[in-house]
Each structure stands twice: as C-alpha cells, then as structure tokens.
User: What shape does this take?
Amino acid sequence: MSSFKPRRRRLPARLRGQDRQRGAFTLELLTLAPLIILMFCALLQAGLWYLARGAAETAARKGVEAGRIEGATPADGAARARAWLDGIGTVEDAQVSTAGSTEDRVRVHVTGGVVTLVPGWDLRVSQSAEGPVERWEVD
Assistant: This one.
C-alpha cells in the first residue's frame, strides 16, 4: 500500500483573508487624525476665550474697586483696569469704558479681542462691573 496523498494547493495569503487587515490602521489614522486635531484646537480655543473672559471680568472688578474709593473718579478706575490688563496680556486691543457711571455708582466696561488659532477669526470678550461709591458722612 502506498501512502500517496495528493498535495493540496495553498491559496495566497490575500485570498485566505490573512492579509485583508494590512494597512487598515494607517487608513483609520489618516481619516481620524484631522478630526482629532480639530477637536484639540477647538478645545484650546475655548480655553483661550475663557481665559480672556476671566481677565476682562477681573479688570472690570479691579477698576470698580479703584473707582469706588472716596475721592477717586471713574477715570481712576479705568486707569487701574487698563494697567491690570496691560500686565496680564491676555486681552488684545482692550478698551475700557466708564460710560454709565454717576456720582453714586461706578461702572467699568471692558471689551477686547481673544487670541485665536484661526487667522482672520475675530473673537471678542465683553465684561462689566459696577458698584456704589464709598461716602463717609459724619452726623
């Protein structure tokens, strides 16, 4: 008895299914990478906007604190807000206004631009604060 077994032909790897996944990760990465980068940039931009908004709010409050002191003027408050914004540097082209201030109340309004990651995109922040002017009266 002979033990002759016919030899089975072996299919190429690409036809057997073993090679079908080759390069799939690269293709997935190429399609997902721009989305991941876009989401990262959007998150960064949101953080920059939030930081500038907080800086504008703090400058407005510091301006009100300086303008409320007895003997101070709203212009003193505006100068304090500008000085603080110049020192922190997170709000671009900051404008400080004391419009709406009266003899009894100081109002400071801060507006300015946000550093953006997209050229030509103009994001703005605007924050206000107000408070009563301190008066000392002797009865």
Observations:
- Residues 24-68 form the longest helix (45 residues).
- DSSP finds three helices and three strands in the chain.
- The two ends are 131 Å apart (CA to CA).
- The chain has one domain: 22-132.
